[in-house]
Amino acid sequence: MVATATALVLSRSLLRRSATSSSRSPLGLELSARRATRPFSLSQSRAASTTTGDPPPQTPTNSSMDSPIKVVSHHFGGSGGEGGGAIDAGRSARKPLSLWPGMYHSPVTNALWEARSSIFERMIDAGAGGQRQEQQQPPQTELLTKTPTQSRTSIVYKFATDDILREQYRDPWNQVRIGKLLEDLDALAGTIAVKHCSDEDSTTRPLLLVTASVDKMELKKPIRVDTDLKIAGAVTYVGRSSIDIQIEVTQVDQGSDMHSDLIALTANFTFVARDSMTGKSAPVNRLSPETEKEKQLFGEREARDKLRKRKREEQKGGLENGIHKLHVESERLNSLLAEGRVFSDLPALADRDSILLKDTRLENSLICQPQQRNLHGRIFGGFLMHRAFELAFSTAYAFVGQKPCFLEVDHVDFLKPVDVGDFLRFKSCVLYTQLDNPEQPLVNVEVVAHVTRPELRKSEVSNTFHFTFTVCSDALKNGLKIRHVVPSTEEEARRILERMDAEGLFD
């Protein structure tokens, strides 16, 4: 009875307290919300002002074309003018938010789009009227000659001092998230392409520039997230309607006596120009390299372009040459399929150090949202690379059994554009492994993106990605072994051979 009475007293006491607090809760919640919201906004603004060194909003002045784009990680109101001053990545001084890609993107991506947006400003301002005006505007008729310096653009990440920015790029192992960095590299390459193709004439309609491919994005050392980072790039070569862009990511090693930037990653992008009204290929401004390094890069890319064209011509060679190639390819296919047939027909006798390609597969899917679009209304290529990398990393992780170490993006083909609302499926597999070097075994992962349209019962390949990973040396010292990957179908064997040929493994 005493326990029951005590419980009743406590219950009544709690009810009285609850009633009292509930009568005060609207004001209490409002005050607490204000206290929680206002200091957070102010602290972000002060932190960004301190870490980036940006002055208070004022009328900016023009600056040199290759001055670094500053990146801030907060969002605040206020107006700002156009020009070459520091760019606030979290807002648009010119456009309402509804006319810009959504807040999904990183502050770096937003900053780059803000930097290039003035070229497309009249189209965004007028909406449908802008499209009618664009149809009346003539295409560029007189090509200009530009230098790599005129398109050179750089971005500095203040990871050492900007806590908010650093947390956006940190991965679980205290390094930079490579997938997120891929978004920024694609956005930077697009900005550089826009700069090179601009004719500074508001009476001509701007070109539509799309990413055609990415070649040899090579990681030379791990990228830390607690040290400032810089990415910079410029046009290295142009064809009639194509633009080659090289980007370098540099980061100073901690504790190093050297104060110069050290290259952490290099990437090569190829963009193609289309007439924004007809969709046909359009000529781009010429390139005139000035420095010895610029001339060397121009020569290398020119030789690569000629080699690619010569190979295309050789593929159209005579019947005899074609028959010989078919015979050689048939032998290679049979060699690759031999072990796969053992897995299928005599699984108990199959090599335990090998695994079928189909058993390494992973897959995910998504609906492409408006927040993931670029300035042309299509899905941002950097977003696609980001998602593909995350799936490739997971595939390599599940295959190796240890955290994989990213080495390079071997090749990316952008075959078809991806639109808002598309049902996109990413399918990945370990395509093959290279185990010749026991100190650095290589795991080659392929990711294929399919645009699927259930209403039409149709599926098309929009992108193919190829990534290379390895494992840390400590895992290998502890006896980690990586399996061979073998195909079980001719289609899988052909994909392996095509990729190996592209990498020159049979030369």
UniProtKB/TrEMBL annotation:
Compositionally biased spans, kind Polar residues: 40-49
Region of interest called Disordered, as start-end residue ranges on this chain: 19-69, 128-149, 280-318
Stretches assigned to the HotDog ACOT-type domain: 155-277, 358-475
Keyword Nuclease tagged: no
PROSITE patterns: HOTDOG_ACOT
Molecular-function annotations in GO: fatty acyl-CoA hydrolase activity
Low complexity composition-biased segments: 131-149
Gene Ontology BP, a term: acyl-CoA metabolic process
Identification of the protein by name: HotDog ACOT-type domain-containing protein
